[in-house]
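FAQ

Q: What does a record look like?
A: Structure on top, sequence underneath. For example:
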């Protein structure tokens, strides 16, 4: 599978509290639209005039900036959908790792949920390969605030399209529904993969 240019199937059926209408728009239109835009940008980069490159404005600069926006839009949406469809019950080695890095699982949940209210775009529990620890981050747009060498594990979409149809402006209710639908087996597999990558590349 090509990472950015092929649509990834949903790993779940119905969700609790998050309607099929929301998913149809979110996955069926928005996410798939980003996948299409990725290929469009790649095609334009093949013929862009390199001699016109300029830091104030140029087609090359604009295409490269939007390339990061679209690539992260695809990656983060896939990471978000990948971990939904579960019963919300925490399990696996990931739980102990969270306790280790956040003193308790409860502390991490409170911190993650608070970041959901503080973020304008994304909340991300990532494995930081630089130190081998788990850290919560936020991103106000797809290509903002990224940490080089950190890989997403738990990803929460806080853009309005993810919750407004079902919850209006009640972000707290949406975040609670997100946690109720988490697939911790999928999350634990993702964590194990990140941890192995860290150990293999030390």
């Amino acid at each position: 599978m090509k990472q950015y240019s092929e649509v990834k199937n949903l790993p779940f059926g119905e969700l609790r509290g998050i309607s099929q209408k929301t998913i149809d728009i979110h996955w069926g239109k928005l996410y798939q639209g980003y996948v299409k835009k990725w290929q469009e940008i790649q095609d334009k980069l093949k013929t862009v005039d390199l001699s016109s490159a300029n830091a104030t404005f140029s087609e090359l600069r604009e295409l490269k900036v939007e390339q990061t926006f679209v690539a992260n839009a695809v990656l983060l949406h896939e990471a978000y959908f990948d971990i939904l469809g579960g019963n919300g019950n925490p399990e696996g080695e990931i739980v102990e790792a969270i306790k280790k890095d956040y003193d308790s699982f409860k502390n991490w949940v409170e911190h993650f949920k608070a970041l959901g209210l503080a973020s304008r775009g994304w909340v991300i529990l990532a494995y930081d390969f630089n130190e081998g620890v788990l850290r919560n981050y936020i991103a106000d747009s797809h290509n903002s605030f990224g940490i080089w060498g950190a890989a997403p594990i738990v990803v929460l979409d806080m853009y309005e399209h993810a919750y407004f149809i079902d919850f209006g402006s009640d972000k707290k209710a949406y975040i609670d529904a997100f946690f109720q639908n988490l697939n911790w087996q999928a999350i634990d597999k993702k964590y194990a993969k990140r941890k192995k990558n860290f150990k293999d590349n030390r």
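Q: Is there anything notable about this one?
A: The chain has two domains: 20-82, 93-200.
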